[in-house]
Amino acid sequence: MGESNKKTIIMFSGELDKAMAGLIIANGAAAMGDEVTMFFTFWGLNILRKPEKIKVKKNFLEGMFGWMMPRGAKKLGLSKMNFGGMGAVMMKKIMKDKNVNTLPELISSAQELGVKMVVCTMSMDVMGIKEEELMDGLEFAGVATYLGDADEARVNLFI
Amino acid sequence: MAEYEINARGLQCPGPIVKLFNQSKTAEPGDIIKIEVTDQGFKKDVMAWCKKTGCDLVELKEENNVISATIKKN
Question: Where do the H-state alpha helices sit in chain A?
Answer without folding.
Answer: 16-31, 60-68, 86-97, 103-112, 121-127, 143-152
